[in-house]
Amino acid sequence: MLKRKIYSKLIEWKNNSNGTTALLIDGARRVGKSFIAKEFAINEYKSHIVIDFGIASKDVLDLFIYDSSNLDLFFAKLSAYYSIPLYRRESLIIFDEIQQFPRARQLIKYLVEDGRYDYLETGSLIRLKKNVENIILPSEEEHIEMYPLDFEEFLWALGDETTIPLIRNCFDKKISLGDSVHRKIMNEFRQYVLVGGMPQSVNAYLNEKNFEASDIVKRRILKLYRDDVSKFASGYENKVFSVFDGIPSQLSKKEKKYSLSSINKNARYRTYEDSFIWLHEAMIVNNCFNSTDPNIGLALSEDHTTQKCYMADTGLLVTHTFMDTNFTENKIYKAILFDKLGINEGMIMENAVAQILRSNGHKLYFYSRHDNLNRENNIEIDFLIKEGTKICPIEVKSGNYNSHSSLDKFRMKFSSKIGNSYILYSKDVMIKNGIIHLPFYMAMFL
Fold it and tell me: What's the pTM value of the predicted model, to 2 decimals?
């Protein structure tokens, strides 16, 4: 069983809410929502019922349609159908794949007011208009997002619970780990970005001890995503496919901003906007917007027409990049494992940083400034985050990078607004010229 950090959030909700709210877990398909909900129910409640609306029978659905006005009868029939007794304040009812039956989500308001039991909802594509139209969203519903396994959870899966506290200590003190320790952790981090954080992929890797088993699982997940596009983006699915299929080539460029001209030279953002939104709301991608006038309110100057589009799981990006070739022909696994840096690894490490920052709660921003008259004024900063009242620029570099001219120009231009400046790279901790250099895996502490 994979240990997940979100479990502690479920415990916190149970203790603090005490039945006054339901909890909705939102996340991409195959991220582990149903599994963690069931584990939580087994461990923390006297009894539980799981209603999977993806396969629920007509008899169950009819309970919500015809019997929800009489909750005594509703619960009696529900308990009888599943042959599971329900205990006041000691039972949990799970609405799995709630997006498949929005009527049940609307009923949450009255079930919570009734107060007899706790309610946990799980869903994918939950924010799509198609899955919320014609219902009133319950104000009694708390909402948390579930992401793929992070690096610490991946190490837990490997049986390692000691490495992260060591890394944390070195990060806090800004001291190096030493060559041998850093080399070991970078090797594990490279395994993590190749396998990714989708639970089925991680389990396949652990069980078979090879990347091919993981790759097979990831191909299945990517096919599932494509099936969802066909089903839920009806009418503009071809545009969604075009944006999705173009992600690897866009990220492989030096400037990773998504250029619609690669799809069609006459393409305009307004005609593809819904496609970017769909992929983001399905939590398949992490969109990163250009903040044209960086300040503590980065969203105030975000430019949606200039954006980067990262995969929400880096392991899926690896497989997506080489989807048209057999695993045996995929050389990127060897290249990354043996630190043979190239353009492909560069885009994968930047995607990994985006994934880490997003799972840490950061909305993703970058800074891009182009001066057509003087190229010396051009500035490209990979990521911007907030620390307190200051902006922190982040550059993702190779271990053998030669300069950071964009970062220098950005620091000079916005000196009054900047806190720490970071370079994330493949080497050990170092502070040089006022810039904090951190290994990729320390992005988890930003």
Answer: 0.93
